[in-house]
Specification:
This protein has helices at residues 2-23, 33-36, 40-55, 63-67, 99-123, 133-157, 180-194, 213-228, 249-266, 275-279, and strands at 87-88, 93-94, 160-161, 177-178, 231-233, 242-244. By secondary structure, it is mainly α. α5 packs antiparallel against α6 (133-157) and α6 (133-157) packs antiparallel against α7. It has a two-stranded antiparallel sheet with strand order 1-2. It starts with a helix and ends with a helix.
């Protein structure tokens, strides 16, 4: 009887040990970058994280358009008592300590860091090859998203801290301020190199739900158009700065024209046939 009990106990212990080994798997939260970027499916899910930063409530999902981009030729915001509000950038009433300005700054740089992390790891992953259109397409989407985040920072702040590396891959924990002209140049060059390796809208199963080759061209045109225009720049002996544009602004305008024309010639997208009908 004792031998029988010992045998039964031993079998039970082996069973529990086997179950323990079977259940001892890595959870998604513990996955390494190597495992995440080891397959196209896993990489695609990581890319969704970059999209999520763009679609968040503090970025393009709501805050960017609803709180800080009004008072233009088509939108405006009013204040019934006309008292200046130091936290109302949409009415051009704000200070450097504005909570809304800080929220936008944090949201855009959070998106930049997420995009940088994705791009850096994919570039160094075994699956990355310029011959794999699925992988280069995902790389292009992430680079366009990064350019979108930086574009908003450039529009609001001009010269900004700039890097194309994730925080853990650089020794610069306090980034120096980079001249806006140099930032525009690097972003445009970055997108020009990846654009030929991206899919046109017609070849993307989700269609316009994902960033296409045409969207990359359009982002290049937007960056170049903004880079060539006037912007408020620091000036000596004044607290207000001065409106200037770069000396090579015509080069930027030519770039904008070239890539906007690529979008037009693709035939994928078009304006309304009658612009006046919009107002009617």
């Amino acid at each position: 009887m004792k031998i029988k009990n010992i045998l039964i106990g031993g079998i039970c212990m082996l069973t529990f040990t086997a179950c323990n080994d079977f259940l001892d798997v890595d959870t998604p939260s513990k996955q390494s970058n190597e495992s995440i970027f080891s397959s196209e499916n896993e990489t695609s899910m990581a890319l969704n994280g970059v999209y999520a930063k763009a679609l968040s409530d503090n970025a393009f999902g709501n805050f960017l358009y609803n709180n800080v981009q009004l008072n233009s030729d088509v939108d405006f915001a009013t204040n019934s008592n006309e008292v200046p509000q130091l936290n109302a950038p949409k009415r051009f009433d704000c200070t450097a300590e504005s909570g809304d300005s800080e929220k936008l700054w944090n949201a855009m740089y959070s998106g930049v860091e997420t995009a940088n992390n994705f791009i850096y790891n994919l570039e160094n992953a075994p699956i990355y090859s310029e011959d794999n259109i699925n992988v280069t397409q995902m790389m292009g989407e992430a680079k366009v998203l990064r350019a979108m985040f930086y574009y908003e920072l450039l529009c609001y702040w001009g010269n900004i801290p700039f890097t194309m590396l994730p925080t853990y891959a650089t020794q610069e924990f306090v980034l120096p301020i980079t001249d806006r002209d140099e930032v525009y140049k690097q972003l445009i060059t970055d997108l020009e190199s990846i654009a030929p390796l991206m899919k046109p809208t017609a070849e993307i199963s989700e269609g316009i739900e994902r960033i296409s080759q045409e969207a990359c061209w359009a982002m290049i045109a937007r960056l170049a158009l903004q880079a060539g225009g006037y912007s408020l720049r620091p000036a000596a002996n004044t607290n207000y700065g001065k409106m200037e544009r770069p000396s090579n602004y015509k080069d930027f305008y030519q770039t904008a024209r070239t890539y906007a024309d690529k979008v037009i010639q693709s035939g994928t997208h078009a304006l309304n046939k009658s612009f006046s009908q919009v107002f009617i």
